[in-house]
């Protein structure tokens, strides 16, 4: 329930980076805190805005949450806040689904083109002032398998189909004649269908079912010419198995935006591999993205304070916002 007067909103932000919530200050008592003060900022709070979406402080402070009815996280992934205490409570959880879809799709198209057109080698040759004529690959007609059939996966599928690539999906259940993927294979058959793909894109949410899905067995099933792209969660991958597959040329390359340990340690061999593209968890972070995240929260806050149904309500047992039937 909301407070008898104005509701109390706690905002968890990183150090010296609180969001601009001036527009709603007249409607709520706002407590800004970084993770060191979260335990003190939760008692009496009706809602929590997890603006620092990488923070893992909430489980340790959960005992102080004595009046929460709503938690909103400024990301599409909810694994940092989906711990047993929140999952088993009556607290509603919402996320920022929809903000990153097209930006991440553009990133995926970009790294696929970078592999096909061998841009990394072109840059190395340019730095060495070395002229070397080469032939490159077409992307049209190549088969991309996308694990994760939510909004981001669908945006990726639409963008890749627009440049002539063949796309299939991997999701919870089998589907035929899907408008974006054509065929969706059940995740239980991932390894069985990996040999069909020239590119494999991981964008699935992190759940008990998807954690570690890309292991030695999965990489061994892929074509030696295939490339792997991870824009989902680092924990979808067994990193040591990926490194071994790259070193032994079981797969041809990888573009990695997320890692099981972030920042990626400086001694990781992934940094120095010429067939690997590394980016710093930024595939969806386009200019103005933080402002968009705040706007999405404010839209939901207005619905919450006026007791309208919230957008992007997470099924806490599944670990993501269910997509409507297509």
Kindly describe this structure.
- Keywords: NAD, Oxidoreductase.
- This is D-isomer specific 2-hydroxyacid dehydrogenase NAD-binding protein.
- The protein has 326 residues and is α/β, with parallel strands linked by helices.
- It folds into two domains: 8-99 and 287-305, 3-Layer(aba) Sandwich (Rossmann fold), CATH 3.40.50; 101-278, NAD(P)-binding Rossmann-like Domain (Rossmann fold).
- The chain is built from ten helices and 13 strands.
- The strands form two sheets. An eight-stranded mixed beta sheet has the order 8-9-7-6-10-11-12-13, covered by helices on one side. A five-stranded parallel beta sheet has the order 2-1-3-4-5, with no helix packed on it.
- Helix 9 links the parallel strand 11 (227-230) and strand 12 (253-256).
- Helix 4 packs across helix 6.
- The model has no long low-confidence stretch (mean pLDDT 96).
What's a quick, concise take on this entry?
This protein has 326 residues and is of the alpha/beta class. It has 10 helices and 13 strands.
By secondary-structure content and strand pairing, the structural class works out as alpha/beta
CATH topology of the largest domain: Rossmann fold
CATH architectural grouping of the largest domain: 3-Layer(aba) Sandwich
The secondary-structure element order is EEHEHEHEHHEHEEEHEHEHEEH
Helix content: 25-40%
Identify the CATH homologous superfamily of the largest domain.
NAD(P)-binding Rossmann-like Domain
Distance between the termini: 35 Å
The overall strand count is: 13
Strand content: 15-25%
Query: How many separate domains make up the residues?
Result: 2
Average pLDDT rating? 96
> What's the number of helices?
10
Strand sequence of the main sheet, in spatial order?
A: 8-9-7-6-10-11-12-13
CATH class of the largest domain: Alpha Beta
Largest sheet: 8 strands, mixed
Round the Cα radius of gyration to an integer and report it. Answer: 21 Å
- Inertia-based shape: globular
Pick out the low-confidence regions: none
């Amino acid at each position: 329930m909301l407070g008898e007067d104005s509701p109390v909103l706690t905002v968890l932000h990183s150090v010296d980076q609180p969001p601009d919530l001036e527009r709603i200050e007249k409607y709520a008592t706002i407590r800004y805190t970084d993770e060191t003060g979260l335990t003190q900022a939760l008692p009496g709070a009706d809602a929590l805005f997890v603006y620092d979406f990488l923070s893992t402080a909430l489980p340790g402070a959960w005992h102080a949450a004595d009046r929460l009815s709503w938690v909103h996280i400024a990301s599409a992934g909810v694994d940092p806040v989906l711990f047993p205490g929140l999952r088993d409570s009556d607290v509603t959880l919402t996320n920022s689904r929809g903000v990153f879809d097209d930006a991440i799709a553009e990133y995926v198209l970009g790294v696929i083109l970078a592999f096909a057109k061998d841009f990394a080698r072109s840059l190395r040759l340019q730095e060495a002032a070395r002229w070397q004529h080469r032939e490159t690959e077409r992307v049209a007609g190549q088969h991309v398998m996308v694990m994760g059939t939510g909004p981001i996966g669908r945006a990726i599928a639409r963008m890749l189909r627009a440049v002539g690539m063949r796309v299939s999906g991997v999701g919870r259940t089998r589907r035929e004649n899907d408008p974006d993927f054509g065929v969706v294979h059940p995740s239980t058959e991932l390894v069985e269908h990996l040999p069909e793909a020239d590119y494999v894109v991981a964008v699935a949410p992190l759940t008990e079912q998807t954690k570690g899905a890309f292991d030695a067995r999965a990489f061994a099933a892929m074509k030696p010419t295939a490339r792997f792209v991870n824009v989902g969660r680092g924990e979808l991958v067994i990193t040591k198995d990926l490194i071994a597959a790259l070193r032994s040329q079981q797969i041809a390359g990888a573009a990695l935006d997320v890692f099981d340990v972030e920042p990626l340690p400086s001694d990781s061999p992934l940094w120095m591999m010429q067939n690997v593209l590394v980016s710093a968890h930024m595939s969806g972070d386009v200019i103005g993205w933080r402002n968009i995240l705040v706007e999405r929260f404010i839209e939901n806050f207005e619905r919450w304070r006026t007791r309208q149904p919230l957008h992007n309500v997470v099924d806490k047992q599944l670990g993501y916002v269910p997509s409507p039937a297509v």
